[in-house]
Structures are given as C-alpha cells and as structure tokens.
Design goal:
This protein is α+β, with helices and mostly antiparallel strands. The chain folds into five domains: 5-199, no CATH class; 205-443, 7-stranded beta/alpha barrel (Alpha-Beta Barrel), CATH 3.20.110; 453-544, no CATH class; 630-835, Distorted Sandwich (Beta-galactosidase, Chain A, domain 5); 856-939, Golgi alpha-mannosidase II (Immunoglobulin-like, Sandwich). Helix content is 28%, strand content 28%. The protein contains 22 helices and 47 strands. Strand 3, helix 3 and strand 4 (91-95) form a beta-alpha-beta unit. Helix 1 packs across helix 4 (99-112), helix 5 (128-150) crosses helix 15 and helix 9 runs parallel beside helix 11 (280-298). The radius of gyration is 35 Å and the shape is elongated. 50% of the residues are buried.
C-alpha cells in the first residue's frame, strides 16, 4: 500500500488533567481501535503514527486513510459513509470492546482491498507474539503524548527519527534476522524514554500486585510472572501450602522467581482470618506460623507483610516488629476502613513508638479499561504530587485487560512509563514521605459480621458461618484454655518438673500440635483441650502436694494468670459444706452442691479441705445477697426489672447512682412480656435471680423466648449474666439490622465510651465499635465496664444506648455469658479473667508443704498482662513469658521466681536473644515501655 494515514475517529481524547466518565465498553473500544492501528500490517507504509481525529473532520473521507471507527459510542456519520470510504480508496474497520475482534476487523478490511489473485500480505497473517511489541510501543506513544499535554510541555520526542525506527522494524519483519525488528523498536522506545526524561528524569515506580484466590487456584498469575518482570504476590502460608500440594510445579517456579528477586510474596500470616478480633496469642501464632511455613516453602523469609483480608488494628506495627517484619502493605482490598494517607510510603507507628515502613498507594484495578484509559492522568498526578512517582496495579481473579500486556511489552523495550519493581526493593529505595501519629481504633474497621453472616454466593458454608458471632467467644475461650495448659506446664517446669504427653513424648510437642489444630480448625477440639489442661494441672498438683498431709482430701486451684483472682466454684457430690476460712472467702451448701468463693494468688495455687470437722453449720453472712428483685454483694447492687426481665439498675453502695440498664431486644423492634422473675439463691456465697420472658413483634406474635440469670458472688466485683435466647422467628437479612441483642442504656449522653483493643483503651465514637474484650463508660469519676466475654460486635443507638449483638442469621449458639463491673482499675485483667479457666484438682492429700496458699512466679506491675507462659521450646530448664503493657505508662517491673534463675534475657518473638537482664536472687529487673510487648526467658540451670 502507498503512503497512508492512520486515524481513530472519536470525539474523545486520553484524559490528562481530569478524569472522563465513560462506560467501560466506550473506553475499551477507544483503546482497542488505537492499538489495532499499530499492527504492522497497518503501519507498513504509514506516513505518521496513528492519531485521534474528530469524526466531523472526516465526514467526507479522503483517499489514503485507514479509519478505525468505534462501535461504542456510535459516531454521528452519514449513512453512506462506509460506501464513501471505499469510493475514496480508503479503508475503514470497526473497533469493538474485544481486542481480538478489533484486530480481526482490521485484517478483514486490509484483505478486502487486495487485488484479486494477489499474493497474501504476510504482515496481515503475522502471529500475535511478533506483533505484540508494536502494540506495546503504540500504547506508550499515545500515553507519552497525553502526558506531555498534561504537563503543559512541548512534545520533545524526535518524531522523525522515532517513526523511521518504527518503519525499519516493520520492514525487518520480512527479513531473515528475527532480532532486527526488536532492536529497531528498542531504539524507538529509548527515544521515547529520552523525551520523557525531559519532564521527569527520575524513575517512575510500578508495583504489580496479585491477589490469588483459594476458590480460583487454577487462575493464571499475571503475565509479568512468565515474562520475567517483577511481581508482588499477596498470599498466606496456608495458600502456598495448598499450591504445593495441588500444583507442585507451580510452587517450584514461584520459588525460582523468589530466589531471583523477581517475585515478592507479601504475607506473614498463616491463615487469612479475622485476626483483629482474636486474642493477641492467636495473632502471634498466626504470624510466627506463617513466617516459618513461608520460609520452608520458598526458602526465604517474609520481607513484606500483606493480607488479602482486612486484619489491621493500632497494634499491628508492634506485632510485626516483634516478629522481625519491618515492611508492610497497608491496603484494604475490600470495603474495610483503614487510615488514609497522601504519600505512597509512611512510617506506621504503634502506641509504643515502634514503626513499620508501609506502602499505602491504592492500586488501580488491572481488569478494567478505565485504568489504562486514564493512565496518563494518573501518571501526571503522581509525578506532580509524590516525592517518588508511583503507580500500582491490582490483579484479582478476572484476567487483566490486553492493554496490560501492551504495557509489559513496552517495558521490555524501555521503561518509558515506569520501571516494575518488587515491594521489598521499592521500600528499600523510597523513603517515607510522612511520619504519622499512632492511629486510633476507630481508624480501622472491617465488616466481619456481614462476611460471616451472609457469605458470598458460591462460597462453601463453614463453621464460621454457623457461628458468625459466638465463634469468636468460643475461639477466645479455647485459646485461653490452651494458654492455661501451657502456663501450668511452665509452672511445673519452674519447679523443675517435666510432663509426659499422652503419646509418651514431651508434653510441649503435644501442646504444639494441639495449638496448631486449635488455631487452624474453625471448630477447636474442646475435649482434647480439656484433657491437655487436666493433664498439666494434675501433674502440677501432684508435685505441689507430694509432701502434703496424707488422707486429707481437698481441692487444689491453680491460677495461670498474672493477677490474683476471686474464683467462684460450684462443686457437686459433696457430703457436707466446705469449711470457710483461709483461701475460702464464702461458702454455702444446698442439695449436695457446694458453692464457694476462693482467692487464688497470681501464678499460684490455693488448697482447701473437702470436708470440714463436725460442728455447727457455717454462720450466715451479714449481707443478704438476693431478694425479690435485687442481687448484691459488697461491690454493687443490681436490680432486675419486672417489666422487661432485664437489668433495671446497677449501683455502687457509695453513690447509689444508677450506672446501667439492660434488656434483650430484637432489632428492628420488639416488646417484652415477662412470664416470671424468681430468686433462686440468697446466700451466703451466691445471690441469684432468674427471669423468663418472651419477645413480641408489633403484631404481638412471639419472636423468641428469653431466660436471663443474674449472679452476685461474695468478694467478686462482677455481675455475671447468662442469657439464653430461643428464637421462634430467627433473624434474617442484613446482620446489622436484623439481630437479637443485649441492649445496654445509661443516663448521661455525655458519657465517654472506650473499648479495649489488644489490651489498650481507645476512646470511640464509632457507631459499630468492635471489641471482644470490654467497653467502658466513663461519667465523671464513675467507670462502668461491660465485658462481652469474647462477643465482638456492638452497635450504638444515639448517645446513650448500645447493643451487644448475640444472634444473627445463621447463628446456632443460643447461650451467652456477659458480665458488668464497676470502677475497675485494670479492665483488661478482668476481661482476661472472665474467659480464663481455673483448673480445680481433687486431691487425696494436702495442703502443700509450703501452706494452703502460695505463688510460683510473681509480677509486681499490675499494668503488665501475662498473655503467655511456656516451658522453653528447646527443652532446657527454662520458661518463656510474653507480657503486654496495658496501662499506657512505662516504668520498671520485677519478676520473681520460685527458684533463683541463673540467667534472664529479653527475646524477639522468634526466641532470639536481644538483651541480658540483671538477676538478683529470685528477682529479675526489667524496664517496660508504654504499650510494649515483652518476650522474656528465664533459665534456671
């Protein structure tokens, strides 16, 4: 064909200063029409690069043109316009939203203009692989032209030399040297790069992010993986394990790319789960397990932390730093809320001051044509606004558009539009542009409730969907039961003892396997956890009472927490009352059941006799613990409402002010009909009232039957609440609008509400403040604390009401345990005590030779919370402890031991020593920072 021009007819241009709102099909048609004109068969003999022209300028077609006309939106052209094109000796083809269809239209149009009997043009039949670099070059040329326009700068590209290189590349396609076309195209691309360097001489960083999905494991990874360009894969260790099982060849290729620094696997977590609402020990297990498995599979440690599902909170930098990860991907790939940042990299701090370098640039979706249509606009914005120009692309399960392949082909010629990089390399090169203040809890929010109650279509319904609310409470209690077994094993190790597992091996190895099952399975092995706890408790009790008085049956209570506890017990099968005195602060006996309140020291034990000496029954307490409407003890008085069956008021004895009211509701609306309120225990150890009622809808039809039990024990500062809901009409629909909940109300609209997150208190104004630990109301000097017992979802109504959500669609659990406390100095300690078991061992001898009460370890700082105590993993005569500062202030702390330690060290989360601590006798001194996380190791021999 003689010299001709290449024209895309369109009223639009590539956006520069502003975005352009067009339909996806309109945008795709535009881009495909422009790309097709860069096919070598169209370029051959062209006078200049393809350009966009207005349809009004070509209503009368001219000879020597190849026109691309988009099918969407339709152009305003004369009805016989295509006839006029043929009459003028030009060519027109239709550009469609599909790349293949557009190229096929071009080729058909070119073939139709060939003389009958002429030899076929080999360029028309050129294979896609050899044509791809031309399309990539055309993609870059169009965007570079738009970028110059956006920068209000003259186009500095040497157009003549550039076009000569393109024509030389087209001519070389018919030669024998297959490398010559690419050399010519590289020369053209380098001229484009030189022109771009005039307006921005620094590197433009391109970050390719891929989100593999376990539901579409066979989906191909982005094309950059096979083309040897840097890629960032966001994958949990469990997903990598599954790939290794089902597609070992794919994992082997991934390992090769990782070793060659061409792929960063951004992970760190073993499971993609709701970590932000789980105990800190569960979060640490997920991090440490994920790092170990990833290193085993890929041969390299995790460099950048990343998650597909939301799992962030203000303490995430602290956990990452303690685990040895200093870089993170601070992005939400769903509708979750995270802090907004203008810069691409920030130093994300936690409350203790530890920082993680985090990538925050929201990626552009690679599967939509809008991204590539607006690419010049995005480039202009990042060049003008960022200290290091950066663009990120995100790949989900839907394949990327064909323009992504054009971009990769251009990059293989020259980095005209940027240089692809891994996140670890990027974060090592680019400095943080912003040093932010520690985020608050309200800055993070993930809608786990909707995910669990209304799973997406096509997803299998698992245990988490049958317990969308109560599953968190069950997991929290299972975790504490496991930590109790670990703690008792460590207390035994502190005495120099060791425990044999059920399989005859070390008990620590058995617990490690059980821990993996507990955290991995969505239905923790409850019976096996109880068995492990009993095994550890029995071994410790046997050691403590080895030199006790024989034939003196009793009960030994063990406290794995770092704070003393008043424990309430109900013991069945007793021949008579438990004698009061010593650690037993209150006791009563009814129908063979003994109810006692026992004080147990922190990290210690308390023993009391099973049967007292014959004599008069114990003297009743001076305080009547319950009457017709109230339960009380020395800390509070709680009044039950006869109209709702809920809590009418809870008061302290000093001010007598009503702190809080409560009732069970169905949202969006219900009324309560009380059937009965009865007092079931009046003391001297327990005051108990039980109410039974039904919830009615506006038509007076029964929604559910409700039973509430209120308990006040002597010496315990908590009002215990057991709520049983049996729905007649289960809730259906959006879980934040349709649920059964415990509604709490207070008088003062100005009362401040705080919530516990990983031990720290955060003031909250969020409508849906999520926390499994506690919610604290502060009005003046009065503090009222709601302990949801692991139930994490709450919703506020106005300024003085809050619902603890109990039942939503799909929930199968019907019983819930909550508590209310007044003026608690360390609410996180109380929250941990609510969900922590106290093992009770029936002994045939006792008390221990050191006395009925004693401690094995002692921590003198109430602001330090012991989250984990374990025997040393290497089998040495040593224990390790994890401590979390929860008071918000630093200082010194002293840890005392039952035996004099020989050495004390601070560790990182992986057990590597960091700092030697001074040891004086049985005490270890350490400095504690505000909201710090401490890993301590004590060696005894």
């Amino acid at each position: 064909m003689s010299t001709h021009e290449l024209i895309l007819l369109s009223p639009y241009r590539l956006p520069t200063h502003h975005t352009l709102y067009l339909a996806d099909d309109d945008v795709a048609t535009f881009l495909n029409g422009l790309a097709a004109l860069w096919h070598p068969a169209a370029l051959n003999g062209a006078a200049a690069p393809p350009r966009v022209a207005s349809p009004y300028d070509h209503e009368d077609p001219k000879p020597g043109f190849i026109y691309a006309t988009p099918v969407s939106p339709p152009l305003m052209l004369p009805d016989d316009w295509y006839f006029r094109v043929r009459q003028a000796g030009s060519i027109a083809f239709k550009a469609s939203p599909g790349r293949d269809a557009t190229l096929a239209g071009l080729k058909d149009a070119l073939r139709s203009r060939m003389s009958e009997g002429a030899a076929p043009d080999p360029l028309i039949e050129l294979d896609a692989e050899r044509a791809a670099p031309f399309l990539g070059l055309g993609f870059g040329q169009a965007l570079l032209e738009a970028l110059f326009e956006a920068m209000s700068h003259e186009n500095m590209l040497d157009a003549a030399a550039f076009w000569k290189d393109v024509q030389d590349a087209v001519a070389a396609l018919s030669g024998d040297d297959a490398d010559t076309p690419r050399r010519c195209l590289k020369a053209a691309a380098e001229k484009m790069l030189s022109a771009r360097d005039v307006i921005y001489p620094a590197s433009v960083h391109l970050v390719d992010l891929a989100l593999p999905d376990d539901a579409h494991l066979d989906a191909p990874w982005p094309a950059s993986f096979d083309k040897g360009l840097p890629l960032n894969l966001i994958a949990s260790a469990a997903l990598l394990e599954r790939i290794g099982r089902e597609q070992p060849e794919r994992l082997a290729k991934l390992r090769e790319r990782v070793e060659a620094d061409l792929v960063d696997v951004c992970g760190g977590s073993y499971l993609e789960r709701d970590d932000a609402l789980l105990p800190i020990e569960s979060q640490m297990w997920n991090l440490l397990k994920g790092q170990a498995v990833t290193k085993h599979l890929l041969g390299r440690e995790v460099r950048v932390f990343g998650r597909r599902r939301f799992g962030f909170h203000p303490h995430t930098p602290l956990l990452l730093q303690s685990s040895g990860i200093g870089k993170a991907l601070l992005l939400a790939f769903d509708e979750s809320v995270i802090p907004a940042h203008r810069t691409t990299v920030v130093n994300w701090p936690s409350l203790d001051g530890k920082q993680v370098q985090s990538f925050t640039r929201t990626p552009l979706p690679a599967d939509t044509p809008q991204t590539f249509f607006h690419l010049a606009h995005h480039l202009h914005r990042t060049i003008m606004q960022d200290h290091a120009a950066t663009l990120a692309l995100l790949h989900r399960t839907t394949p990327a558009g064909p323009w992504y392949d054009d971009w990769l082909e251009l990059t293989r010629l020259a980095p005209v539009l940027g240089r692809w990089t891994t996140l670890s390399a990027y974060l090592s090169e680019v400095l943080a542009g912003d040093y932010t203040a520690p985020a608050s809890a309200d800055d993070f929010h993930g809608d786990y409730l909707v995910e669990r109650a209304n799973p997406p279509e096509g997803r299998p319904v698992g245990p988490e969907h049958r317990e969308p609310v109560s599953g968190f409470a069950r997991q929290t209690r299972a975790r504490r039961q496991l930590d109790t077994a670990w703690g008792l094993a460590a207390l035994n190790r502190g005495l120099g003892g060791r425990i044999e597992g059920p399989d005859g091996g070390p008990f620590e190895e058995y617990l490690s396997r059980l821990e993996d099952r507990t955290e991995t399975d969505l239905t923790p092995p409850g019976e096996e956890l109880a068995k492990a706890q009993d095994l550890a408790a029995t071994a410790l009790a046997r050691r403590l009472t080895a030199r006790g008085q024989p034939n003196n049956p009793g009960y030994l209570l063990l406290n794995p927490c770092s704070f003393s506890r008043r424990v309430a017990l109900e013991l069945g099968g007793l021949p008579g009352p438990i004698p009061q005195g010593g650690p037993v602060k209150a006791s009563q006996f009814n129908d063979g059941v003994g109810r006692v309140v026992v004080e147990v020291p922190a990290l210690g034990f308390a023993w009391f006799q099973r049967e007292g000496p014959p004599g008069p029954p114990p003297t009743p307490g001076r305080l009547r613990l319950a009457d017709d409407r109230c339960v009380r003890n020395e800390y509070f008085e709680a009044e039950v409402d006869p109209a709702t069956g809920g809590l009418r008021a809870i008061r302290d004895h000093r001010t007598r002010a009503n702190r809080l009211g409560q009732q069970i509701v169905f949202n969006p609306g219900s009324t309560t009909h009380v059937q009965q309120v009865r007092t079931t225990s009046t003391g001297p150890a327990l005051g108990e009232i039980v109410s039974e009622s039904v919830l009615l809808d506006p038509k007076d039809e029964v929604l559910a039957s409700v039973r509430q039990r209120f308990r006040a024990w002597v010496g315990r500062p908590l009002l215990e609440m057991r709520i049983d809901v049996k729905p007649v009409q289960p809730p259906k629909g959006y879980p934040w609008h349709a649920y059964y909940g415990a509604r709490f109300a207070w008088r003062d609209e100005k009362a401040a509400l705080t919530r516990g997150v990983c031990g720290a208190s955060y003031a909250t104004s969020h409508t849906r403040p999520e926390t499994p630990d506690y919610l604290e109301l502060t009005s003046g000097s009065q503090k009222t604390v709601i302990f949801p017992g692991g139930l994490p979802f709450h919703q506020r109504h106005g300024g003085r009401m809050l619902d603890v959500i109990l039942l939503v669609e799909g929930e199968e659990t019907l019983s819930f345990d909550l508590a209310i406390g007044l003026d608690r100095e360390q609410p996180m300690q109380t929250a941990l005590g609510v969900v922590s078991p106290v093992p009770v061992i029936e002994t045939s001898m006792g008390p221990p030779h050191v006395g009925a009460v004693g401690w094995l370890f002692h921590l003198d700082a109430p602001n330090l919370l012991l989250t984990s105590l374990r025997p040393a993993a290497d089998g040495a005569d040593a224990v390790t402890a994890r401590l979390l500062e929860v008071g918000g202030f630093g200082g010194q702390a002293q840890w005392r031991c039952v035996r004099d330690p020989k050495q004390a060290r601070l560790l990182d989360a992986h057990g590597e020593p960091m700092l030697e601590l001074p040891v004086r006798g049985d005490a270890v001194q350490m400095d504690v920072g505000r909201n710090d996380l401490i890993h301590l190791r004590l060696d005894f021999t």
